[in-house]
Write a structure and sequence with these properties.
This protein is an all-alpha fold and 60 residues long. The protein has one domain. Helix content is 67%, strand content 0%. It contains 2 helices and no strands. The longest helix is centred in the middle third of the chain and has 21 residues.
C-alpha cells in the first residue's frame, strides 16, 4: 500500500478501513433488507442516524 507507515505489513489485529468495510457493509445491507421487508425503513433510518450521532459525540 503506497504511503503506509509500516515497513512490511500492518501489525497483527489492526482494524483497517478495508477490513472494517468488509465486515460492516454486509451487516448493514442485510439489516436494511430486513427493515425493508418488515416495512420499518423510517425507524431503521432514525436508529442508524441516532447511533451515528452518538458515536460521533463519543469519539469527539
Amino acid at each position: 500500500m503506497p504511503g503506509t507507515p509500516y515497513l512490511e505489513e500492518a501489525p497483527q489485529g489492526l482494524l483497517t478501513w478495508p477490513k472494517l468495510l468488509r465486515i460492516s457493509i454486509p451487516i448493514l445491507a442485510s439489516m436494511t433488507a430486513v427493515a425493508w421487508w418488515n416495512e420499518l425503513l423510517i425507524e431503521w433510518g432514525i436508529f442508524l442516524t441516532v447511533a451515528l450521532v452518538i458515536s460521533f459525540i463519543i469519539r469527539r
